[in-house]
Amino acid sequence: MIKFEKTKIALDESYKPNQSITLKFPFTGDSNFISSIEPSCGCSQAKIQDNNIVVNYKTDKIPYHLKDKGTYSPTKFIRVYLQSGELIVLSFTVKIEV
Fold first, then answer.
1. CA geometry: angle at 54 spanning 51 and 57, to 5°?
2. Domain count of the fold of the chain
3. For residues 86, 60, 12 and 97, what is the CA-based torsion angle, rounded to 10 degrees?
4. Does 89 map to a domain?
């Protein structure tokens, strides 16, 4: 059985485009219950390290149509598939400034 301390993270800091960020989703339980981990996009990499899902994320460029707003806050997802067939979805939101 796997239990995450939290499944959602909203980062308070602002980041620039193309900046690297590392996040941790701590969990309790045996990591052998995890069959696979899939990030929702190519800008994120995820792995199991100790009792954490460690996510390395490289911030996106701000889409052209949003540059006038000054910031962009994408939410990214990590799908954690368990041996039991259960799916746990982790998410994080990052604020990116122009």
1. 170
2. 1
3. -160
4. no
